[in-house]
Design goal:
- This protein is α+β, with helices and mostly antiparallel strands.
- The chain is about 35% helix and about 25% strand.
- It has 5 helices and 8 strands, in the order E-E-H-H-H-E-E-E-H-E-H-E-E.
- The two termini are about 25 Å apart.
- The model has no long low-confidence stretch (mean pLDDT about 95).
C-alpha cells in the first residue's frame, strides 16, 4: 500500500519523509513534548531517522505510518500523528504530538480523528489502541473526545502507570 495524504477542515496530514528528520527532532526534543512522548529522554538524530524509515516501510507493507500535521496558515508543521504496530502483537496504536504553541486548538483531536477513520475504514482494522502516561491529562481528554473506551491501567512506564483505551470501528465519532 502507498502512503496517502489526509485532509480535514483545518489540517493537511502528509506522510513522513526523510526531509522531515530535522524538524521532527527539533519538536521531539522540546521539554514539554518529550516529557510524555519519550519519557523525558532527549533522543538522538539516528533514532528519529529510524522512526521515519520505519514509517515509510510500514506504509509500504501495511498502509499505516506517521503523518506530519500541517495547519492552514502555519509556516511550519505543527506536529505529527500516526499509527504504529504494538511490538509483539497484531494490534496498532495511535500516536500524536504537537508543538506546545498549538496545544488547546483542537488539532490533536482533529488529526487523530482523521487517522482513525483512515485506519478503521480504508485499512480495515477492527480497533486501534491509545496508550498514555497516567499524568498526561491532555491526552486523556483527547482520547475521550475520540470516543475511546477505557480498557485498563497498567503499572508500567516512567510515570508509574499507563492508561490504555481502545477505539473500535463502530466508535469513531
Amino acid at each position: 500500500m502507498s502512503a496517502v495524504v489526509l485532509t480535514t477542515e483545518r489540517l493537511r496530514l502528509r506522510p513522513f519523509a526523510r526531509d522531515d528528520v530535522d524538524a521532527l527532532q527539533a519538536q521531539w526534543t522540546q521539554l514539554d513534548v518529550r516529557r510524555y512522548l519519550w519519557d523525558g529522554r532527549v533522543i538522538a538524530r539516528p533514532e528519529v531517522v529510524a522512526v521515519v524509515e520505519e514509517s515509510i516501510a510500514s506504509f509500504a507493507t501495511r498502509g499505516i505510518g506517521f503523518w506530519v500535521i500541517e495547519a492552514r496558515g502555519a509556516a511550519a508543521p505543527v506536529g505529527f500523528v500516526g499509527l504504529r504496530a504494538i511490538p509483539g502483537t497484531a494490534d496498532i496504536e495511535l500516536y500524536y504530538g504537537l508543538e506546545p504553541a498549538h496545544w488547546g486548538c483542537g488539532f490533536a483531536t482533529e488529526a487523530s480523528r482523521a487517522v482513525l477513520r483512515y485506519a478503521l475504514e480504508a485499512v480495515g482494522v477492527e480497533h486501534v489502541y491509545v496508550r498514555m502516561d497516567g499524568p498526561n491529562l491532555r491526552s486523556v481528554e483527547v482520547t475521550k473526545r475520540l470516543g475511546a473506551d477505557w480498557v485498563r491501567t497498567e503499572a508500567t512506564g516512567a510515570f508509574g502507570s499507563t492508561l490504555v483505551y481502545v477505539v473500535r470501528r463502530a466508535g469513531v465519532s
